[in-house]
Amino acid sequence: xxxxxxxRPILIVEDNPDEAELAILAMRENGIDLxxxxxxxxxxxxxxxxxxxxxxxxxxxxxxxxxxLDLKLPRRNGIDVLKTLRSCKETKYIPVVVLTTSSLEEDMxxxxxxxxxxxxxxPVDFRAFCSQIELIFKxxxxxxxQPAPQPAS
Amino acid sequence: MVTSLIQNIAILISISVIYHFISRSFHGKPxxxxxxxxxxxxxxxxxxxxxxxxFDKGIFYDTRSIIIGIAGFFGGPLAGIIAAVIAAAxxxxxxxxxxxxxxxxxxxxxxxxxxxFSARKKAKERLQRAHRYSNVVSVVGFLLLGLxxxxxxxxxxxxxxxxxxxxxxxxxxxxYLLVYPIAFALICLLFLDNERLIQSQKELAESxxxxxxxxxxxxxxxxxxxxxxxxxxxxxxxxxxxxxxxxETLCSMHIQDINTLSPQEVEAEMQKxxxxxxNVFHFxxxxxxxxxxxxxxxxxxxxxxxxxxxxxxxxxxxxxxRAERELEAxxxxxETQVIERTRxxxxxxxELEELNREYEAFVYSISHDLRAPLRALSGFSTILSEKLAxxxxxxxxxxxxxxxxxxxxxxxxxxxxSNARRMQKLxxxxxxxxxxxxxxxxxxxxxxxxxxxxICAEMKEQNPDRQINFTIEPSMxxxxxxxxxxxxxxxxxxxxxxxSKERKQARIEIGCTEYRGRRMCFVRDNGAGFDAALAGGRLxxxxxxFHEASQFEGTGxxxxxxxxxxxRHGGDVYAESQPDQGAAxxxxxxxxxxxxxxxxxxx
Lengths: 153, 603
Description:
The complex is a heterodimer.
Chain A: E1 10-13, H1 17-29, E2 36-39, H2 42-52, E3 66-69, H3 78-87, E4 96-100, H4 105-114, E5 118-121, H5 126-143
Helix pairs in contact in A: 1-5, 2-3
Chain B: H1 2-25, H2 30-50, E1 53-56, E2 59-61, H3 64-94, H4 99-129, H5 139-156, H6 162-217, E3 221-225, E4 232-235, H7 237-243, H8 247-251, H9 255-258, H10 263-274, E5 280-285, E6 293-304, E7 307-316, H11 318-369, H12 371-389, H13 392-395, H14 403-438, E8 444-447, H15 448-462, E9 468-472, E10 477-480, H16 482-499, E11 506-515, E12 518-525, H17 532-535, H18 558-569, E13 573-577, E14 583-587
Parallel strand pairs in B: 9-11
Antiparallel strand pairs in B: 1-2, 3-4, 3-7, 5-6, 6-7, 8-10, 11-12, 12-14, 13-14
Helix pairs in contact in B: 1-2, 1-6, 2-3, 3-4, 3-6, 4-5, 5-6, 11-14, 12-14, 14-18, 15-16, 16-18
């Protein structure tokens, strides 16, 4: 079970390809070598998550190990995505890290109310960003324990 | 002799009746009265002289002295003289040895009584001036006057031949000194009584006349009402003019016909006026040819000819009532306007709130959208410069190795990164500035010294290689929003630190002092300073810089933030500086009453 999460992908919900690339670069810098799935709008994220239940039972590993979620997204915003994730049996327990440039108190509150596990304010400085990513992954892979994914039976 | 005296007195009494008939009939014509009464009394004296006590031929005694005395004392000089002249003429006509004595008696009687009349008149006038009223006479006075007159008459007998007066005087003395004065006094009392009656009738007539004048000639509307029935008993010309009915018509009406209240209500109000419980009323009165009029009625009981009646003084107050109504209407209109304005204001407030929300959304958008490209710029250039740094070992080995090109690239990447940092700071400061204008403010008592100490400690930590000497006043109480106060102090102190960086030993002082007549806090440094006069009003405007960016980095927003914070508190900020002489910033948080200042003052 310990090694299990590492085989599952990371879901990045981010509309700005530069931002997505920076996140992946920061992960690679820290030696995190997991497959990344990128969706670029809120609706796509919801569609992706809802389709997971319909996946073949032989592919339980497609359920993301962690989701990095931006708040300001086209079509459906990050909060909507969070709510959908939390209401869906398959994705209820997946850690969601809100990764945003917004430092508004209001956004922070709404995120936690919708069920976010973490809220990270992305710094401009790339080195600072790298160390944040390192900390997040260390925590979710090495410190935290979570139940096994629940694919639709 | 006594018989003739009684006869004479009887005549006098009947004459007194005629005398008073004359006085009443010719009231207001004193000369006629004097003439007539003088003649009448003169005639009476003749009658008296026709039935005398005859002592001897040509010598006779009668009551002429009493009659002339009465004429003089009650009728006055004119009546007295007329009566005396008539009597004396008759006596002279009769002739005889007693002619001179008889005539002298008449003259004496007239003289003394006229003197007494004048003395009484003067005494009366004196008393009147002192506002005391009296007839100034008494029985004793009358007796005394009678005695003086008749003592004179006895003395007049000396004009008779000596043999005669020696016989006569002892004979008439008892009657003249005792009976005649008493008779005189009695008749005087009779006349006095009549005089009093006439006087009181005169006074009554006068007061009646005054009342009539007051009632009929006054321009105020007045009515006399029977309080039992409400019947109008009298109305003055002003009332005729006001109501439009003549006096006869009004006197055939009842007050209930005029008052617009119900008869029962009018009855109740009349009883209040009668009992003096209330004397000012507000009614509406009907009029002949005009619509009912608002009136103010003063009413109260009055006794006329022994009857308890009600007087009413009526004032037309329609103008006043109209003015009051207009005022009321005006205030209603005003109220409507106020409601209308309030509504408009509420709408505007809503609009403003809407705008504020839009503004906040815009700010949010900036915070998110501007930062993303900046992050990409910064991130990719960082990766690039790191990649470049890992190149040299390989590149130096090549034939075209050129270390200076690599250095140039590294330098340019550095420039990109430092600009990205600057832009980030700019965005952060702009967000701060906008949020200060919109965020809720919660004032409380706080100690600025404590906040300043914390900020200075941070500054020392951030600038470990600098020599900065902070001096902070131990206690600086203020009434302000703690978050905003911290931002303000942080801005001023970091400015002081920044602009004193070229000093070997930077000195920064934070304290309180009297400035421009107020107690103000200050932050002072010994740094580069600036020309405060040249900077003027622009000093606290956004994006104003007074040093080259290469010399002191900064966004030019810090002092705008400071200004906005003090303005939101209702305070002020001032700068004092000379180039190279350091700078001092003075500020306060307005009055300590805790009220939010007018937001329109926000610059």
